[in-house]
Amino acid sequence: MEDLFANQYPAANSKNLYADIILPVPIPKWFTYSVGLDIQDQIGIGYRVMVQFGKKKILTGIVAKVHQKAPDVYQPKPILDLLDDFPVVNALQIKFWSWMSSYYCCHIGEVMNAALPSGLKLSTESKVQVHPDFDFDNPGFPMDDREILLLETLSKHDEMNVEQFDQLLPGKTSHKIIKSLLGKGAILVYESVREKYSPKTEQRVRLTSKYIKKEGLLESLFEDLKGKEKQEAVLLKYLQQVSVFQKPEANAKGLEKKVLTDHGCSPSSIDTLVKKGVLESFKVLVSRFEVPSVSDHGIELSPVQGEALQQIHAQFEEKNTILLQGITGSGKTEIYAQLIQDVLQSGSQVLLLLPEIALTTHLVHRLQKIFGDKMGVFHSKYSDNERVEVWQGVLKGKYNFIIGVRSSLFLPFDSLGLVIVDEEHESSYKQFDPAPRFQARDAAIMLSWMHQAKTLLGTATPSFESYYNAQNGKYGYVKIDKRYGNAELPHFFLADILQDKKKNLLKLDFTRLLREKIQTTLNRQEQVLIFQNRRGYAPYISCDECGWIPECEHCDVSLTYHQYQDELRCHYCGFKEKVPISCHACGSQKITTVGTGTERIEESLSLLFPEARIARMDLDTTRSKYGYQRILEEFSAGNVDILVGTQMITKGLDFDKVSLVGIVDADRILFYPDFRAGERAFQQITQVAGRSGRRDKTGDVIIQTRRPDQLIFRQIIAGNYNDFYRLEMAERKQFFYPPFVKNIKIITKHKDFKTAETAAKFLKNLLMDIAAKKIILGPEKSLIGKIKNLYLFEIWIKLDRSGKVQQFFKQQLMDRIAELQADKRFRMVRFLVDVDPY
Model confidence over 779-832: pLDDT tens digits? Predict the structure, then answer.
């Protein structure tokens, strides 16, 4: 990849200027376009340009380099347009994109596609117009009624969208009619290009300045308005809201038109006063975000927190990355806030990464009280326009502190001083699909290095990779083993599901111990968290007679039963169908649910505790923009007694009244076919347990299990992370698992089973010839062998951790994949490379 910083700008009058453009396509190179004379003195690295790609596509590209070397093999097309007056991406970002594409074995165009908010990309839509040479009187071809209707409608407009014709014609047959009319030369179809982002504007009005400057003119105006009560009411209301004589600058800012209409003023009367020249109407750009109120209270640290902060500052003198291990409830957020404040005062930028949007909404209010409008929030629940506004806020220096999820790494930072990765162990930091399949924690460390910034990794239960690096001196290490204030760690209890079942004490999936503890907690008017890491009502339904289980038509998985929607749903492709009345195999009507999801837990609790107010927090209840916020606000306000949730509720939430946490099925987390299953079980159970008992209350945690004899439960209860870590690491070293090796997973996908399998076998043979220290496993059919009608085969590679070995092998890997894709047998096979799979 060329040196991104070696951008020499030729003279503005040069006629042979070219630009290398990054385009959002999965092709491993930049594309060279010619730069027109009209934009040669404006173009540079990071500018957005509009270019033609192929015969019909119009794409948004980012300029990576400007030079005078013409391409050898093709005649470059011209850049169609320069979209901005300033670069929207900086050189450091392009360097970061290049590293990510190299490390995670994908194309830089795929990284760009993930990095840029949709609102900064051009979109195209098909437009239709009557052909200028078409003769309505003598069309030359017979026309049916639908074609005549479409042409008559089109003749009344300069152009129309293809979608608009669907409303005219029944059964969405417009595409066939358009194709017919195209063949008859009656119409033209073309692509209209438009910008997605549009700034938010506000319509305001103000009193014309002459009525302020000229004495007595306002009084005479009221004389003129006598009898015109509605217009007079508008003027009086405006003068009540704006002190035009005492504060002329307030009049210059005007008043939002909506304020007048909300107070009963007639819109037509306002418009009449504008026409008369009494009021002036104008638009202003406004932010889509509310300006937060800042608290006067500073950041107060306990002695323990203060000592941890001093250790962090001291270790940052020698280490660029520090692991902060603080038990749940130890007050890591206050330490973050003090560090953020210190860095902002030095003039640098800060990024605080969180694994879930749920955490974002909860922490935003706490941190906004400290940092106010200096802080921006960035996550996927925001609209395209809102995300562009945050992007531009960082670009223009409005936001020096960003709190957000993994996509925040791509924002246009130019002077990062600190990156904080909270709950660094979380699997949510891993991007699964589409490419780049990056690990945000690891990418954050690289981004910090590029900015010569510091990285703080915070968690109560470190990932094995981070703890290994801390133990070996690569990272600094600070530990807090006391909760904030006088808070005590919760008491743990193991509830044996099988024993209760034998004694007929198990009711609706709840052991007697958990039911009693819930009732006691409700009696004390305190709150309960119930954790079950499976959404839906039940994992699946089954026929009692023959064992038939409904499966997805497109994937090799059973359909999950959702009671509230009365449907079976695939959680992989979204396929849905109604719940069958009878078995499709034997006709029996003995259809029962198997297993337990959050919906069923919620229903069971409402039957067991009819007086309790119960809410559910999972992917189904938080799809809306403010879904998380609404549920958490209700729970925080005490309007919910029991909150049932998936792993969303395990992370960083802090509620004073929660004194009981129930884990319905700990075995489901522990007994999972993955080498990280034990690590994740320890982390998830410890994290959700940490929600119980804050401030001066000691909480309880009930773990329901069929295997209470498991060693890991004793280690969790004792908080013995080190013993657990040592045992697990001994196994990983023996069987070659991370962090002792680098894992790479390659998936082949194709609609034909045999083609997917053959492609995987050919690829393995090619990889075996690469001279690198490695172990290659497979290919094997994936755990879920078919998703969205595509068959999946996996190859697993255990690779030496040496940086040179990794770089060499990854480049060879991409070359081998390109070699296979050039083979016509495998042209339609998709090869997905996942580095550091989770």
Answer: 999 988 999 999 999 999 999 999 899 999 999 999 999 999 999 999 999 999
Tell me if 105 is assigned to a ligand binding site.
no
573 is in an annotated binding site: yes
Question: Is the domain of 265 the same as that of 340?
Answer: no
DSSP line for 627-670? HHHHHHHHHHTT--SEEEESGGGGSS---TTEEEEEES-HHHHH
Range of the domain at 715: 491-538+596-729
**Among 530, 703, 519, 521, residue whose Cα is nearest residue 615:** 530
Q: Which pLDDT does position 636 carry in this prediction?
A: 85
777 within a domain of the structure (yes/no): yes
Segment (H or E) for 262: helix 257-262
Q: Of 599, 626, 592, nearest to 615 (Cα)? A: 599
CA-closest candidate to residue 747, choices 786, 796, 794: 794
Residue 13 within any structural domain of the chain: no
pLDDT given for residue 561 in this prediction: 87
Q: Are residues 106 and 136 in the same domain?
A: no
In angstroms, the CA 313 to CA 305 distance is 12
The verdict on 522 and 581 lying in the same domain is: no
Q: Indicate which CATH number applies to the domain containing 473.
A: 3.40.50.300
Residues 461, 508 within the same domain: no
In a domain, 162, yes or no: yes
Enter the pTM of the model.
0.82
Q: What is the pLDDT of residues 128-183, one digit of tens each?
A: 888 877 877 777 788 888 888 888 888 887 788 766 776 776 655 666 787 788 88
Angle made by CA atoms 779, 425, 680, in degrees to the nearest 5: 60
